[in-house]
Design goal:
Distance between the termini: 11 Å
Largest sheet: none
Structural class: mainly alpha
Radius of gyration: 35 Å
Number of strands: 0
Order of helices and strands: HHHH
Shape: rod-shaped
Length: 180
């Protein structure tokens, strides 16, 4: 998804550049149109007078260019809005994926701690004998409490993960990715 985010950002930049270029061309064409609309128009290159027919032809040409560019600008602005929305959706999905990854990592850490604690309990159980029964039993209670706390924490994280899955994050991610 990071690559798609970068691709959309690049596409937005390219679209913005195209919009700037078209706007600059329109500004030039509008300046040229204003010059042609003056009573006495001269050729910008050779300084000769421009007759009415040539003036009319040039005005029509300039107006057509401006109109065509205005249509392109409108299409590009629509495309830019869509690109920005898609980029926003990708970034939201990336945030959710990062959150899920963190939750899964936390579950893995808790599972590891559970394994270590179970191993200690097993070791303690093997060491239990009649002379140290009370002391070992106290240690076992401490580890049992740790296990209980870890299991509770694990369930909370699993519930969060299930909730995120229930919110159809992966379907939305698939839909967004499919559009591209």
């Amino acid at each position: 998804i990071n690559k798609k985010i970068v691709d959309k950002e690049n596409e937005i930049e390219i679209t913005n550049n195209l919009l700037s270029t078209l706007n600059a061309v329109n500004n030039q064409e509008e300046k040229a149109t204003k010059e042609l609309e003056k009573e006495i128009s001269k050729c910008p290159i050779c300084e000769s007078d421009i007759d009415k027919d040539k003036k009319k032809s040039l005005l029509e040409q300039k107006n057509k260019i401006t109109k065509d560019n205005d249509e392109k600008i409108a299409r590009l602005q629509d495309k830019l809005r869509e690109l920005k929305q898609t980029l926003l959706n990708f970034k939201e999905t990336q945030t959710l994926v990062n959150k899920l990854t963190l939750e899964v990592t936390q579950i893995t850490d808790i599972d590891q701690k559970l394994g270590e604690t179970n191993q200690k309990i097993k070791s303690i159980n093997e060491e239990l004998d009649e002379r140290t029964f009370e002391a070992q039993l106290a240690k076992k209670k401490v580890y049992d409490e740790k296990i209980k706390n870890l299991l509770t924490e694990r369930e909370v994280i699993k519930d969060k993960l299930k909730q995120l899955r229930d919110e159809n994050i992966f379907e939305e991610f698939t839909k967004i990715s499919g559009k591209q």
